């Protein structure tokens, strides 16, 4: 008999009442009394486990003993019956067999394990409720992101992973090379080293699909990229990963206001999708990670986001009377403590901070007429800080070139990018949303290492 997904019985149990079904899964808990045994099994299709009820008088010890263990995988068939709890269903087992044994050194023996401990066993932590729920929300969130853009006529573009440019200009690039250690030692200089390398020039893993996304938008109008990006950022914080996913729309003919409106609609749309589709998971996160989580998310869907000029943000911080570690003055790159003050203490909802000083932002951002600021905005949210980096792009060839020269960039690496300003340049804007940061926000999970299947941070490659 073919296996029935456990989620079918969880969601749709009444339709199966009285029917004989086959299920399979991993035993999460096993307990028994004199006459009865109970196994909670999970096959990953639902957060909730399915209870298998076993009348011990009908089974020999040889059959029962091996399946009554935490972590083993089993296959069972039996009849679907109402459980004690209203609306829930369980299986009266007719037959059960062991698929794979699980010896007593299985690390997930207790009900609760610390997140730190779980990070040491990425191959097994997926079998906890937390990771089961997180991965399902991650999947639904990703699909909702695609749906949002597809419904609005955006073209999904796959930008290259290997690039020869540094979009954010922060020098946090992982190098890509086919050379080995010996090649580096024998080459007399970098030029010789590169001459023997695969691409014959410096190559790296992309930090952002934006530059190539702009190329696509200058032909396809409305595009988005959605894929992995990489940063050799050696900052050991709960919100920085070396490998993370970004969704990056890029829109031709859009100004900063237009892209802020798109970002707002997208955030509300994907939060609503998670509220609608991941009710059980959010209830779990609310209990385990963040009290009031669902009310927070509902509030975000219903409320207007704040749009706050950077200068005004600085004034608010200066007047706050708070003792910040990094002193506040115009020109400061807002630190986590400042972002948190603004979103958590002042507004308690998402805030777009706009028009940052150009000195602290990237070369590609449109320069405002004041000569000091750029048409850029970060979306800050309570608890996480920045989740979106966004800007109108500099569409003027000379101004873009000047910004690049000021930063000492190698123009030859960006010729193709500058061509966009030469051939039919148009105003255009885009943003990047960090998927993991968004997941932290919607689940309440406090560390980026715990919203990825495998965490990727400095010194940590499991
Ligand atoms: O603000 P960032 O650096 O912006 C860009 O990369 C632009 N090129 C995006 C664009 O306009 N197309 O990064 C965008 C977002 C951040 O707001 C944050 O959510 C996430 O990417 N992010 C990270 N997430 C996890 N770990 C890191 N090290 C991250 N760095 C950025
Ligand atoms: Mg940023």
Provide the fold topology.
Elements (H helix, E strand, L loop, with lengths): L5 H7 L7 E13 L3 E7 L7 E6 L5 H7 L5 E10 L6 E12 L14 H5 L2 H4 L3 H23 L3 E2 L5 E2 L17 H6 L3 H6 L8 E2 L4 H11 L1 E9 L12 E10 L3 H22 L1 H10 L4 H10 L3 E4 H10 L16 H12 L3 E4 L21 E6 L3 E8 L4 H10 L8 H5 L8 E7 H9 L19
Parallel strand pairs: 3-5, 6-9, 11-12
Antiparallel strand pairs: 1-2, 1-4, 2-3, 4-5, 7-8, 9-10, 10-15, 12-13, 13-14, 14-15
The protein binds 4-amino-1,4-dioxobutan-2-aminium adenosine-5'-monophosphate (4AD) and magnesium ion.
4-amino-1,4-dioxobutan-2-aminium adenosine-5'-monophosphate binds next to strand 10, strand 14, strand 15 and helix 16.
Number of β-strand runs: 15
Low-confidence stretches: none
CATH topology assignment of the largest domain = BirA Bifunctional Protein, domain 2
Termini, distance in Å? 38 Å
Number of helices: 16
Q: Write out the distinct hetero groups bound to the structure.
A: 4-amino-1,4-dioxobutan-2-aminium adenosine-5'-monophosphate, magnesium ion
* Arithmetic mean of pLDDT: 96
**CATH architecture grouping of the largest domain:** 2-Layer Sandwich
CATH class identity of the largest domain:
Alpha Beta
Fourth CATH level, the homologous superfamily of the largest domain:
Bira Bifunctional Protein, Domain 2
Strand content: 15-25%
The number of domains is 2
The percent range for helix content is 25-40%
Largest sheet properties: 8 strands, mixed
Rg computed from alpha carbons, rounded to a whole number of angstroms:
27 Å
Please state the structural category: alpha+beta
